[in-house]
Design goal:
It is an enzyme of class 1 (oxidoreductase). This protein has helices spanning about 25-40, 55-65, 70-80, 100-105, 130-145, 165-180, 185-190, 215-220, and strands at about 10-15, 45-50, 85-95, 95, 115-125, 145-150, 155. The protein is α/β, with parallel strands linked by helices. The longest helix is centred in the C-terminal third of the chain and has 20 residues, at about 165-180.
Length: about 230
């Protein structure tokens, strides 16, 4: 099938870098360029949308505290919902992906990204944080039931001068294109959608869903069965 027979692939680039210039954004941009190049070699075109999470900071507290989504958050969710593929990059702070990155994806509904092809990437000042992508970021995206590319991309300060980084970027880009070409998201949703436990807003961990007056919760608060909790 040629590019004239189909619509372009929609790729959303989620960048959690906050500095200017940002190595995290630089990694995201390089991945996006290589995805476009890999797709073009197969006769496809790509529409890339950049989503800089720092622009959502004014709306993040409301989304976390009450589930209220402002206009920028709503637009970001709509972009992710219609994406054929996602590139998600984060800076590493204190041995984990940045709070901005984690908080954004924790706000999303659990069903939003089912079977979405995703490349994961991270940047840090030292190679000692290299496992953050696969140990922490990949596990969160597994919970969201995405199709993460086998190759994740980590870049420390010294990696930018190493040709091996470019090879990893190319490999991850190729994997994302192949996943998009297979139509894996649509095929999984078409055959398995009804078998998921759909809970709108479920990713927020809503405390209102907990029965604070139950015997178990009274015991947890230091009370006794059938009696009030101790203050």
């Amino acid at each position: 099938m040629t590019s004239t027979d189909q619509r372009p692939f929609r790729v959303v680039v989620v960048n959690a870098g906050v500095s200017d210039p940002s190595s995290t954004k630089m990694l995201a941009d390089r991945l996006a360029l290589r995805v476009e190049a890999a797709a073009q070699r197969d006769g496809h075109t790509v529409e890339t949308k950049n989503l800089d999470l720092r622009e959502l900071l004014p709306e993040l507290s409301g989304a976390l505290a009450s589930g209220h989504l402002g206009p920028r958050f709503t637009a970001a969710i709509e972009a992710l919902a219609s994406a054929d593929g996602i590139i998600a990059t984060a800076p590493v702070y204190k041995a984990g992906p940045s709070g901005l990155f984690s908080s954004f994806f924790q706000v999303l509904d659990n069903d939003l990204l089912i079977a979405k092809p995703v490349i994961l990437g991270a940047t840090a000042g030292t190679a000692r944080h290299a496992l953050v992508v696969d140990e922490q970021m990949r596990s969160m995206f597994a919970y969201l039931r995405t199709m993460t590319a086998p190759t994740s991309v980590f870049a420390s300060t010294e990696d930018w001068q190493d040709n091996a980084l470019g090879k990893r970027i190319d490999r991850a880009a190729r994997e994302l294109v192949v996943l998009m070409e297979t139509g894996v998201e649509a095929r999984i949703k078409d055959t398995s959608w009804n078998s998921y436990q759909h809970e709108y807003g479920s990713a927020g961990g809503n405390e209102l869903g907990i029965d604070l007056g139950s015997d178990l919760m009274r015991l947890a608060a230091g009370g006794t069965l059938g009696g009030p909790a101790r203050s």
